[in-house]
Design brief:
By secondary structure, this protein is an alpha+beta fold. It has 3 domains: 212 residues, BirA Bifunctional Protein, domain 2 (2-Layer Sandwich), CATH 3.30.930; 76 residues, no CATH class; 179 residues, no CATH class. Helix content is 36%, strand content 25%. It is built from 20 helices and 20 strands. A 7-stranded mixed beta sheet has the order 1-5-6-10-9-8-7, sandwiched between helices. The chain has a 4-stranded antiparallel beta sheet with strand order 12-13-20-17, covered by helices on one side. A hairpin with a 7-residue loop joins strand 7 and strand 8.
Length: 534
């Protein structure tokens, strides 16, 4: 059952209003008495893009490059300095930043009257304090996150009422429209490299070798299997008094050969970007054995002396840039970059048989040493007497547990029935997304059961294990709480819960959506009774 009920919450918001429900919403969050297990033994799963980024970072560092964090927000005029007459075309691919202006809000007599109608008794000092807050907000001395709190303090009212006043008395806030600026998001790492090189010139010894693996933002008209609006570039620059463009090929190979890339092709570009010197820009390709195609993965070249001069840079600069997502698509044999980067949105839930097996657990289990011993005793004795016919009863435990005297019996009351049913020793198998309960050997089995036994994942969980765990946990609880009798009787198993097994909600959804089966039917016929003596 879901701890939160989204439909019920939204209905309350619709009827009672956001502020009222928000103030009470802490009570809707279930409190846990257990601490989060931070040492479960299962390591987390890295994202493939960040895993590749880490490998590239290690390669750059091993090659003697120093890591820097380049500016993400770049002024429009920097693009003109670098690209010259090509800049307007380049800017078409950039995202410009916009921001809401700070409104100039006056506090008229009518507005003061409206505030009082909302239940606030105004005084001269309160009006003066509110005017000061509005002035300081306009001047940027108060951050947006703090505005409600400052209005609340100025008028000495709860923050919920301050929020209501802001929305009802000052409509300027909701009427604001974003105003564009001359600031752009970095569309290419080059736009930031010039600024970094300018800052470090004459502060570092040559050759200056720098790298950065970070995001770049492109105003793509759409996102599709080969285009994303946000992607990563693994970029580096070398500044030295002498440079050959061939160094770009050497750097590329040094970076990628340890990652498994060996077949390269480097071609001089016919049309050179204006921030590179004419004839000094190259494209690099690697062979993708999966698609049997050459894939462009790198661009490198030596910066144009005109662009360098505009930043006062006195030495030649080589730039090498690799597309991380493009590399990852080859490494992970993925044809759709969206599935690789955003699997939560573009892939269906997929669970392996091993993952389904890990999602199966006992509903309840004994936690004490005595409780676990009782569980093993129930299993041992039940298997020892499994062919005994009813009515029958066997005393399997007579002694002390958790400081109390106890007698435990296994029994079968039905005339002629065996102590254990035919399915008690069935195992749980996982096969092709199905959960199948079956004996280790069988004659007239269905094709699915036969395949599950021969090809499926054997979990080593028997029906009797779940029932014994249930009985031992109930007995353990009775010993702790003062109960005098416990009687557990499991006859037919039709569902996992009948044999004290649970399946995680995620695994259950996966099995249901894929129209797979959970088949654990069969007779168990195990009875366990405990008599607790003070």
């Amino acid at each position: 059952m879901s701890p939160l009920k989204p439909n019920d919450i939204l209905e309350r918001v619709e009827k009672e209003g956001f502020e009222k429900v928000w103030k009470e919403s802490s009570n809707l969050i279930p409190k846990s008495s257990k601490s989060l297990d931070l040492h479960s033994g299962r390591p987390g799963t890295p994202h493939p893009i960040y895993e590749l980024i880490q490998k590239l970072r290690c390669r750059f560092l091993s090659l003697g490059f120093d890591e820097v964090f380049n500016q993400v927000i770049v002024e429009e005029n920097e693009i003109y300095r670098q690209y010259g007459p090509e800049a307007p075309i380049i800017l078409d691919r950039c995202y410009y930043l916009a921001a809401l202006p700070r409104p100039d809000i006056g506090l008229s007599k009518a507005r003061c009257e409206e505030i009082e109608r909302l239940g606030v008794k105004l005084t001269d000092s309160k009006v003066s304090a509110l005017k000061k807050v509005l002035r300081e907000y306009k001047k940027g001395r108060i951050e947006s996150d703090d505005l409600i709190e400052r209005i609340s303090e100025a008028l000495n009212i709860p923050d919920a009422l301050a929020t209501s006043i802001t929305s009802r008395v000052f409509p300027e806030f909701s009427a604001l429209k974003p105003e564009p600026s001359k600031l752009t998001l970095r569309s290419h790492m080059t736009s930031a490299w010039f600024l970094t090189l300018q800052a470090l010139q004459h502060r570092r010894e040559l050759p200056l070798k720098l790298f950065s693996v970070d995001m770049r933002f492109r105003r793509e008209q759409r996102e599709d299997p080969t285009h994303l609006r946000v992607h990563h570039s693994a970029s580096c620059v070398v500044m030295n008094d002498e440079l050959n463009v061939e160094e770009g090929e050497r750097i590329t190979k040094a970076l990628l050969e340890p990652l498994g890339f060996h077949n390269f092709r480097f071609i001089k570009k016919k049309v050179t970007s204006k921030y590179y010197a004419p004839g000094m820009e190259y494209e690099g390709f690697v062979y993708n054995p999966s698609s049997k195609k050459w894939v462009e993965i790198v661009d490198y070249g030596i910066y144009n002396p005109i662009a360098l001069a505009r930043y006062g840079l006195e030495q030649p600069v080589l730039n090498v840039g690799l597309g991380v997502e493009r590399l990852a698509m080859i490494l992970y044999n993925e044809k759709d970059v969206r599935r690789l980067v955003y699997p939560q949105f573009y892939t269906e839930l997929t669970l392996t048989d091993q993952e389904i097996a890990r999602a199966i657990r006992f509903g309840i289990e004994p936690v004490t040493k005595e409780g676990k011993e009782i569980k093993e005793k129930i299993i041992l004795e039940a298997l020892e007497h499994k062919d005994a016919t009813g009515p029958c009863q066997f005393l399997i435990y007579d002694g002390e547990a958790l400081g109390r005297k106890i007698k435990i019996y296994i029994y079968e009351n039905e005339e002629g029935a065996t102590l254990l049913g035919a399915a008690a020793e069935n195992r749980i198998f996982i096969y092709n997304g199905n959960i199948i309960g079956a004996p280790l050997r069988g004659m007239d089995d269905s094709p699915l059961i036969k395949e599950a036994r021969e090809k499926g994942l054997y979990t080593n969980i028997r029906y009797i294990d779940g029932v014994a765990s249930l009985a031992a946990a109930k007995i353990e609880k009775a010993l702790k709480t003062g109960l005098k009798t416990v009687d557990i009787r499991v006859r037919m198993a039709r569902r996992l819960s009948d044999i004290n097994l649970e399946l995680s909600e995620i695994a259950r959804r996966f099995i249901t959506n894929r129209k797979k089966r959970i088949n654990v039917t069969g007779p168990v016929f195990l009875g366990v009774r405990a008599e607790i003596i003070e």
